[in-house]
Amino acid sequence: MIRTPIPCFVLLLLIGTGCSEQPRIRRAMAQAYQPANLHRSGPTLPDGLRRVAVLPLTPADGSSDAAAAVATLEPIVLVELRKHGAFDVIQVSREQLRLWTGRPDWRVEEKLPADLLAKVHDKTGSEGVIFAHLSAYRPYPPIAVGWRLSLIECNTGITHWSVDEMFDAGSVEVMKAAQAYARAQMNQPSVDLDSTGVLTSPSRFGQYTAAAVIGTMQKR
User: Fold this and answer.
1) What is the pTM of this model?
2) Average model confidence (pLDDT) for the chain?
3) Which domain holds residue 62?
4) Is residue 150 part of a domain?
């Protein structure tokens, strides 16, 4: 039997189609990303931790992009903490913190004033303090956001929860988790990579990443 050769343009079409399907296949087979670089003091938060003060979000050193993103991402962190529902959230402004400590922001890894936790407790009535840091930020595709957050009890100084995670939208696992979040929480049935999609919008991707890290915190 004589076999008719497949025309070159057909072969190229088939090969091209196969190549275009590979990322979608890899995404379907990948596991959705789950933050794992975290610490919990126990399975639940202490019952007495009912009110928590959130210090101003600090940006990564030397990153003008991260510094500019603080105004957008700081409110998102507060919203996600309130949605988590483990405690009442009290926002501490930069002006308040400067008045109390002489500086508008602090990072948990710095040498802190000895009376910082006690002062925040006295001024806000909070039993705990959250330090929030934007450790990395890339606003252009593939978008990347890094978070470092810690929850510390005022009276004991115990760190009940901390997380240090980097999310890269170029990762297949992160892509899958972000798109699942967008469908469930952002009313985005379509996950096309347009200008408003979770993988191309810095604010939407920031919301997904903030929700992902805060979702690792215990409840009572």
Assistant:
1) 0.85
2) 89
3) 31-214
4) yes
